[in-house]
């Protein structure tokens, strides 16, 4: 799959995300940089298409220009994607999603500590200041929160939480980004599950 055309890679990742509850029908976006061009999922990919996309659904346009804003199918959340690509040349893919176990942290306004060995490389996933969805302020907050974590991006990815909304992951490429989304989601589940564990170990007996 890694050697397929970019639109096909995006479609594959979109379906896997939906199947694995890494996003929902409410929304999200997946984009990939290809030179000076951006490939990105369309508006309403979740709510109207349930992430069952075709190659002609994937939009393409320049990163440096604003032509994509004129396309009626361009998601308003694409502002944040473009802002990240313009600010960080090492970013090869951006995923905005609503992962099942991450959303409670977004609601609580609580950062996600890396409690799994597999998430240590990402460090703490912080919460950005609140700004309305689709706004230029939100895109600015995302970029500001990613600054200083360029080494994480070059290694694999860096992520931020959007208050009451979801997560944005800036990855070295699409596969690094989706891998990071799932690792952070499982890490979030491990934190949440601690509250359900007994205070003392349950005695183990055989027979």
Structural notes for this entry:
The chain has about 210 residues and is of the alpha+beta class. It contains six helices and six strands. The protein has one domain: 3-Layer(aba) Sandwich (L-fuculose-1-phosphate Aldolase), CATH 3.40.225. The chain has a six-stranded antiparallel sheet with strand order 3-2-1-4-6-5, with helices on both faces. The chain is globular. The model has no long low-confidence stretch (mean pLDDT about 95).
> What would CATH call the class?
Alpha Beta
Order of helices and strands: HEEEHEHHHEEH
Largest sheet: 6 strands, antiparallel
List segments where confidence is low: pLDDT < 50 over at least 5 consecutive residues. Answer: none
The largest beta-sheet arranges its strands as: 3-2-1-4-6-5
The CATH architecture is 3-Layer(aba) Sandwich
What is the total domain count? 1
- Average residue-wise pLDDT: 95
Q: Please tell me what the overall shape is.
A: globular
Could you please say which CATH topology applies here?
A: L-fuculose-1-phosphate Aldolase
What's the Cα radius of gyration? Answer: 17 Å
Tell me the name of the CATH homologous superfamily.
Answer: Class II aldolase/adducin N-terminal domain
Helix content: 25-40%
Strand content: 5-15%
Helix/sheet category = alpha+beta
Q: Count of helices? A: 6
Please count the beta strands (DSSP E, at least 2 residues each).
6
């Amino acid at each position: 799959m890694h050697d397929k055309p970019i639109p096909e890679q995006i479609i594959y990742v979109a379906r896997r995300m939906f199947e694995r509850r890494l996003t929902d029908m409410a929304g999200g976006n997946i984009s990939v940089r290809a030179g000076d061009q951006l490939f990105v999922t369309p508006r309403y990919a979740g709510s109207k298409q349930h992430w069952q996309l075709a190659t002609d659904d994937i939009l393409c346009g320049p990163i440096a220009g604003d032509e994509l804003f004129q396309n009626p199918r361009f998601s308003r959340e694409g502002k944040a994607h473009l802002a990240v690509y313009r600010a960080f040349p090492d970013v090869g893919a951006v995923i905005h999603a609503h992962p099942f176990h991450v959303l409670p942290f977004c609601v609580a306004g609580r950062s996600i500590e890396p409690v799994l060995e597999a998430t240590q490389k990402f460090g703490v996933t912080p919460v950005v200041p609140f700004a309305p969805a689709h706004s230029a302020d939100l895109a600015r907050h995302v970029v500001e929160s990613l600054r200083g974590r360029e080494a994480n991006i070059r290694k694999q990815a860096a992520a931020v939480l959007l208050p009451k909304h979801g997560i944005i992951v800036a990855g070295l490429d699409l596969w690094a980004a989706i891998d990071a989304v799932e690792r952070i989601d499982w890490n979030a589940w491990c934190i949440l599950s601690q509250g359900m564990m007994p205070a003392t170990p349950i005695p183990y007996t055989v027979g």
